[in-house]
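Below is a filled-in request sheet from our internal design queue. Each sheet records the structural input a requester submitted and the sequence that came back. We keep these sheets so that new team members can see what a complete request looks like end to end.

REQUESTER: design group, bay 2
PRIORITY: normal
MODE: inverse folding
CHAIN LENGTH: 206
BACKBONE (tokenized):
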């Protein structure tokens, strides 16, 4: 399978002299839900673009606790912030995914274009703000408050495919998550809509 990388939002409007050498070095991989796209501690070789599906970033602490770092949506990319030596977190497919891998050297070439560099810097700035919000969220006593922050960070209705993943993003247990969600729905704070395959949609009631 060959993918025209000119359609990637990051590379929109970039000249052919940059696109052509990049295209030659990219590869496509397919992942089923539950498979790791990259794993924490792996060798850092590429930047990854999610062409289809959805995935979740997770950091595994030494004490075995898994912390959710956020969702990767279709059209987004990750890995540009890795150290160049090893992958800083695990990314797990939460649905069937198609992923384009761009070697680090090729990504560096892409960033020689000022438009691409500006887009990458903007994305990293937003990631830093979200990381700060997650740090703040970890100090909130209320599970409900942490759930609301996760939903606000998602910027719209959220399809929950795995309750354990959602619980890790809210820094709570699955049991506490379920109790809090039930209460928030009952109190009219959230709307919960069933989806196929045991999934559900959560949205904040205005």
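RETURNED SEQUENCE:
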């Amino acid at each position: 399978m060959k993918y025209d990388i000119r359609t990637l939002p990051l590379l929109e409007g970039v000249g052919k002299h940059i696109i052509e050498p990049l295209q030659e070095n990219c590869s496509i991989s397919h992942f089923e839900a539950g498979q790791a796209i990259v794993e924490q501690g792996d060798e850092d070789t590429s930047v990854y673009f999610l062409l289809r599906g959805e995935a979740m970033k997770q950091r595994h602490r030494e004490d075995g606790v898994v912390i959710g770092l956020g969702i990767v949506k279709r059209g987004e990319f990750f890995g540009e912030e890795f150290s160049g030596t090893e992958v800083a977190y695990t990314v797990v497919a939460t649905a069937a995914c198609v992923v384009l891998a761009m070697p680090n050297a090729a990504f560096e070439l892409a960033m020689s274009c000022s438009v691409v560099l500006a887009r990458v810097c903007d994305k990293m700035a937003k990631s830093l703000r979200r990381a700060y919000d997650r740090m703040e969220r970890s100090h909130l006593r209320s599970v409900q408050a942490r759930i609301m922050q996760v939903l606000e960070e998602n910027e719209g209705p959220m399809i929950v495919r795995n309750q354990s993943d959602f619980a890790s993003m809210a820094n709570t247990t699955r049991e506490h998550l379920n109790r809090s969600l039930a209460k928030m729905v009952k109190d009219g704070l959230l709307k919960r809509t069933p989806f196929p395959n045991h999934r559900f949609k959560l949205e904040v009631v205005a």
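SHEET NOTES:
- Residues 108 and 125 are 18 Å apart (CA to CA).
- The radius of gyration is 18 Å.
FILED BY: M.R.
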